[in-house]
Design a protein that fits this description.
69 residues, alpha+beta, 3-stranded antiparallel beta sheet
């Protein structure tokens, strides 16, 4: 299976991901892949009796290129 490269094939300049604060595995994955936390949307979701923030992560084409030299 061939993976899609958003930066080279689709010419994106930036990729973003939105992750809820309770999803620690996804947060760790974004950071492992080199995404940078760019924002926090407070109290965006209510689940299991509690409000949670939503994190916004981003990775620019330049950052991607630096990571994949």
């Amino acid at each position: 299976m061939k993976s899609l490269n958003y930066f080279e094939e689709l010419r994106y300049q930036k990729v973003t991901a939105h992750v809820y604060a309770f999803n620690e595995g996804s947060i760790a994955l974004q950071e492992h892949l080199g995404f940078v936390q760019e924002g926090r949307l407070r109290n965006m979701i209510y689940t299991k009796g509690q409000h949670y923030d939503e994190f916004v992560y981003g990775l620019t084409k330049r950052e991607y290129e630096m990571l994949n030299r």
